[in-house]
Amino acid sequence: MRDVAVIGVGMNRWGELWEKSHRDIWTEAALEALADAGVDRLDAMYVGCMSGGLFMGQEHLGALLADQLGMGPIPGTRVESACASGGLAFRHAYLAVASGEHDLVLATGLEKMTDVDGGAATYALSTAADQEYEGYHGITFPGLYAMMARVHMERYGTTRKQLAMVAVKNHLHGSMNPLAQFPGKVTAQQVMDSVLVADPIRILDCSPITDGAAAAVLAPVDLAKRLKKSPIVRVAASAAATDCIALHDRQDLAWLASTQRAAETAYGQARIGPSDLSFCEVHDCFTIAEVMVVEALGLMDKGQGGKGAESGFTALDGRIPVNPSGGLKSKGHPVGATGVAQVREAVLQLRGACGGRQVKNASRGLTQNMGGTGASTVIHIFERV
Amino acid sequence: MRDVAVIGVGMNRWGELWEKSHRDIWTEAALEALADAGVDRLDAMYVGCMSGGLFMGQEHLGALLADQLGMGPIPGTRVESACASGGLAFRHAYLAVASGEHDLVLATGLEKMTDVDGGAATYALSTAADQEYEGYHGITFPGLYAMMARVHMERYGTTRKQLAMVAVKNHLHGSMNPLAQFPGKVTAQQVMDSVLVADPIRILDCSPITDGAAAAVLAPVDLAKRLKKSPIVRVAASAAATDCIALHDRQDLAWLASTQRAAETAYGQARIGPSDLSFCEVHDCFTIAEVMVVEALGLMDKGQGGKGAESGFTALDGRIPVNPSGGLKSKGHPVGATGVAQVREAVLQLRGACGGRQVKNASRGLTQNMGGTGASTVIHIFERV
Q: Which of A28, A250, B353, B357 reaches 20 to 30 Å from A273, CA-CA?
């Protein structure tokens, strides 16, 4: 397998973009990535999208978007793994380059979620869970994560305030991200006083419904060195894993086995451990998710994830900053786009191009993108070379 | 890249399977492929599915089905390219093995289409077209292919009876396929007298709405030789291409540019021409589609595709048999499964295991799987080694 670099990234301003179609949003991000890479041709493209059918009435996005970009007849492939669709699309773009099948490949993610009403969006999101055993009985995603949070709080003594501190930290980071959907800062008290969604999860514990896209251009490192000035950002690891989709089948409701498994594989590929990371972009779809992810990644001990944000360990100036971009919580969560936007943040951090939210001396970063309640996880590690 | 073989295939009996869930259907096919391969572990799996959201209210099928098979934590990836989803899933399973990323990979396809009513199914299928420029204005897939047929008939003199002969041939082949949804034979007169759907397309020109799944196990050829007796079936070529998604953007309504492009690439990889093929399995979603595909594959000259079935050129005992399985027309068309079922037929033909529908001296076969009106095409060539 060849060494692979990310040579360009792009993303539009995320939010409720009613005045733009899914094509417009995606094209903005894709063209920015191509311009950043300094290339005007591609050999293949991938798009991560969770539910084109339910959100937009449009499947066949690989072909449609290759056409939209004027890049036909290149192969266009849509990859889906619920909220991990973007990460898995990036992984397949990576494999396409690493294998030698293609040289210049565009990895993108897209979701246009606000053209349907809230009930339809909640239904569409529930198709990431086990519909026959979970969704059909009325449970929604805040409900599923609320059960995971309850177990974590009961077993490990994780507090309501510790969950709130994840939101406080990520909104603080997001306040320095000009593309974030909700860049406003929040206090722990505001989070704890916000509307209850599914006890103990409140509205300010939840990532939002978002329209958005993100894009990255991949190339072999050899080609990247000819095309780009240093620093070159290399993909040091790419791994994916699954877990039981329904919560009732899990051995442990308070443990993300797919994230642990993918992380083990990725650390092995990169020949590093979690303490070697300069920062992580992780899947904080709910505050409890980040608490559990930092444990599964080995950043904190099992059961101790609640202390991550509370102690400052995961703050921008902490030991290992988590979600310098603002995360899903502040930046927004257009589900299919999220995994690719994490890659964009990692690349910009490693280039030292993040302004106020720049992680000091960033040399190696990890992205963790997760589907459903953790039934799928995709992890990548990036390093400056 | 490593040489890759298909070491096991599976498929359930296709039809209106109201008594079975999508899990049941998929599992039948997957377990048959594993048993045929003689393996009980996998390193990764892929599933092609067009619209899990609209047909089944279930996305995240990669994780769900890896779990269903008891194969977690292996990576499970869903690939979508409308009706070419199965072929594209197979291609990514192939790339995963060829690249060295994984050794034993399951490629599957699935669609459960009959749990929604006819109107909802027609809407779901229309999401393979350009919804904003085609679907929202009321056009359906029979309507789109009817326009392509009109141009072909007007320009090349293709006759109504020539279209009917595609259905006659494929139902004759399908009458020898015990897993076909509609194994009954039809006459040209029956096709031409059947209910009009979108002039000139009649109901017996159309492939049906189907529940079904198909599966294949891939491995490096070196491993395959240790696991299986000869003949080993090798993947000699894998190629994908796209075209403009909306018909109004095409240069030629009567030409399938994505199929031509993918075929050119595939022939180059396999170092053969169309005349070297023993048989083809192609995407006859409508009779006119097969007419146009045999031209784009180079089996017949441009404009002469209508003569393929009429002259016997594409019959089971013809020069190059097309759709010995019965094709989408008779076997059924559970859209995400179709591309993988084509692979199954190719493998069984090359093993000489097709009974009454066996192609004599089959040594090399091509599968062509197409999305929408040809916005995407995936082609594979298989050979006995």
A: A250
Q: Which two tokens stand for residue B71?
A: 């194969």
Q: Residues of chain A whose pLDDT is less than 50?
A: none
3-state class (DSSP) for residue A133: coil
| SS3 per-residue string spanning B205-267 | HECCCCEEEEEEEEEEHHHHHHHCCCCCEEEEEEEEEECCCCHHHCCCCCCCHHHHHHHHHHH
pLDDT at B284 over 90: yes
What are the start-end ranges of the H helices in chain B? 22-37, 52-56, 61-68, 85-98, 118-126, 141-156, 160-174, 188-193, 221-227, 257-270, 287-296, 307-310, 327-331, 335-351
What's the pLDDT score for residue A322? 98
Active site residue A102: no
Alpha helices in chain A (DSSP H): 22-37, 52-56, 61-68, 85-98, 118-126, 141-156, 160-174, 188-193, 221-227, 257-270, 287-296, 307-310, 327-331, 335-351
Residues of B (196-255) whose Cβ lies below 8 Å from A:
240-246, 249
Contact B51 A59 (CB under 8 A): yes
Chosen from B3, B60, B71 to mutate, greatest number of chain A CBs within 10 A? B60
d(CA B330, CA B335): 14
The predicted structure's pLDDT at residue A230: 82
- Give the pLDDT confidence score for residue B229 in this predicted structure: 82
Task: Look up tokens 């009954």; give the residue.
Answer: B184
The pair of structure tokens assigned to A109 is 């993610």
Instruction: Give the model confidence (pLDDT) of B130-155 as tens digits.
Output: 999 999 899 999 999 999 999 999 99
3-state SS, residue A172:
helix
Half-sphere exposure of B278 (CA within 13 A, CB side): 20
Q: Are B238 and B94 in contact (CB under 8 A)?
A: yes
The CA-based angle A172-A345-A17, given to 5 degrees, is 75
Q: Which two tokens stand for residue A176?
A: 């320095």
Could you give the CA distance from residue A58 to residue A79 in angstroms, rounded to a whole number? 14
pTM attached to this predicted model: 0.98
Average pLDDT over residues B119-126: 94
The answer to whether residues A335 and A185 touch, using CB atoms and an 8 Å cutoff, is no
Give the whole-angstrom CA distance, residue A294 versus residue A305.
6
Is A63 close to B82, i.e. CB distance below 8 A?
yes
Pairing mode of beta strands B4-11, B233-242? antiparallel
- How far apart CA B256 and CA B371 sit, in angstroms, is 11
Report d(CA B296, CA A83) in Å as an integer.
38
Q: Is A41 exposed, middle or buried (0-12, 13-18, 19+ CB in 10 A)?
A: exposed
HSE, side-chain direction, 13 A CA sphere, residue A257 = 18
Rounded mean pLDDT of B9-38?
97
Which among A95, A123, A135 has the least Cβ separation from residue B99? A95
Residues of B in contact with A241 (CB under 8 A): 72-75
Checking if the pLDDT of B228 tops 90, the result is no
pLDDT of residue A237: 98
Cα–Cα distances (Å) from A263 to A366, B65, B82, B136, in that order, read: 9, 22, 32, 44
With bands split at pLDDT 50, 70 and 90, how would you rate the model's confidence at B230? confident
What is the pLDDT, as a whole number, of residue B29?
Answer: 98
Query: A379 touching B, CB under 8 A?
Result: no
The mean of the pLDDT values for chain B is: 97
pLDDT of residue A187: 98
Q: How much is the pLDDT for B207?
A: 98
Segment B315-319 shows an average pLDDT of: 98
Model ipTM? 0.97
List, by residue number, the catalytic residues of B: 83, 333
